[in-house]
Amino acid sequence: MIGWEDVYKVVVAVVPLYFALLLGYGSLKWWNIFTKEQCEAINKLVCYFTLPLFIFEFTAHIDPFKMNFSFIAADTISKFIIMVVLALWAKCTPKCTFCWSIISFSLCNLTNAVVVGVPMVKPMYGALGVDLVVQSSVLQATIWLPLLLFVMEFWRTGIEGTTTTTVKPRSKTMINKNEGGGGKDVEAVDVKEELMLEESVTSRLPFCKVMKLVWRKLATNPNSYGCVIGISWAFISNRWNLEMPSMLEGSIQIMSKAGTGTAMFSMGIFMALQEKLIACGPSMTLIGLVLKFIAGPAATAIGAIAVGLRGDVLRVVIIQAAVPQSITSFIFAKEYGLHPEVLSTAVIFGMIVSLPVLVAYYAILEFVH
C-alpha cells in the first residue's frame, strides 16, 4: 500500500523537473536573457544533442533478452487500437487532420516513464513495476518515438513539397470608343471571365519522392540513431558480456545527463513565448487530459486482457499507461512546428494531476482485485 513517505519520494523526483522549467520560463519572461533566435538554438541543442544521447544512454543499458513479450504484445495492440480509432475519427469528421491525429496519438500513448513512471510505480508494485515501466520506456524509445519522428518528418516534407499556382482574374474593360463618329466597339469581354475569382491549383510531390526526402532527412537526424545504436549495443553487450569503454561512456553521459533538464528548460522558454500559460486553451487542455489519463489506459487495458495478462502485471500495465506526457514528444513537436502548445500544456498539467490520478488508479485496481 502506498503511504505518505512514498508520496514524498514521488514529489522529490518531480520537483527538480519544475525547477528546470521555471528557470527556462524566468530567463525569458522575467530576466530577458535570451532572444527568440537564441531560444530556437536552445531547442535545437536539446533535439540534436542532449536528447539523442539521453535516449542512447538509456537503451544501451537494458537487457533485451529478459523482456516480457506478453507485455510487448499488449502495448502494441493498444497502440493499434488508438490508430484505428483515430482513422475512424478522421473518416467521420473533417476536424481530424493528419497533424491532429499525430498529436492525439502522442497524447494517448507516449509517456514520461523514466523520469516520472519509475518513482511513482516503485512504491506501488516494487521491482515488478519498475521492470515493466523500464520495458515500456525501451519500446517507446526504440519503436514509437522513431515512428513519431518519421510521421512528423513525413508531414513537414509533404507540406513543404506542396506547390501552389495562382490564377489571376482578367481585368474588366467594357469600353466603347465612338470618337469622331467613326469609332467602333472594342472587343467585349465575356461576363464570366470578368467575374472570375482568383483561385489556386494545388499540386503535391509524388509519394515516392516525398518518402525519399523523408528518409534523407531522417538520416541526418541524430534522434534516428540514438535508439537504434543503443538497442543494438544492448543486444551485443548482453549476448557476449561486453562493457562499453569507460572513456566512451563518460563522453556520452556528460551530455545525456543534461537531456531531461534541458528539455524541461526548453519547455519553460516555450511557455514564456506564449501569451497565455494555458497555451492551447481550457477545452484542448481538458481533451488532452482525457486522452492521456482515460483513453490511453483504456486501450492498454484492452490489449493487456486480450493477451491474457492478469494480476499485478495487468495493474502495472494499466497504471504505466497513465504516466504523464512524454517530454520528448513536446521537443519533437516544437522542432517540427506541430501544435507544441498542446503537448507543452499536456506535460505541465499532466505532471500536476498525475499523482492523485495514479493513486486513484492504484486504489481502484486493488479494490477490483
TrEMBL record:
Keywords: Auxin signaling pathway, Membrane, Transmembrane, Transmembrane helix, Transport. Pfam families: Mem_trans. Its main location: membrane. It is found in: Membrane. The chain crosses the membrane at residues 6-25, 45-62, 68-90, 97-120, 132-151, 225-242, 254-273, 285-307, 345-364. GO terms for biological process: auxin polar transport; auxin-activated signaling pathway. It is a multi-pass membrane protein. GO terms for molecular function: auxin efflux transmembrane transporter activity. GO terms for cellular component: endoplasmic reticulum; plasma membrane. InterPro entries: Auxin_eff_plant (IPR014024), Auxin_Efflux_Carrier (IPR051107), Mem_transp_PIN-like (IPR004776), Na+/solute_symporter_sf (IPR038770). Belongs to the auxin efflux carrier (TC 2.A.69.1) family. May act as a component of the auxin efflux carrier. This is Auxin efflux carrier component. It comes from Glycine soja.
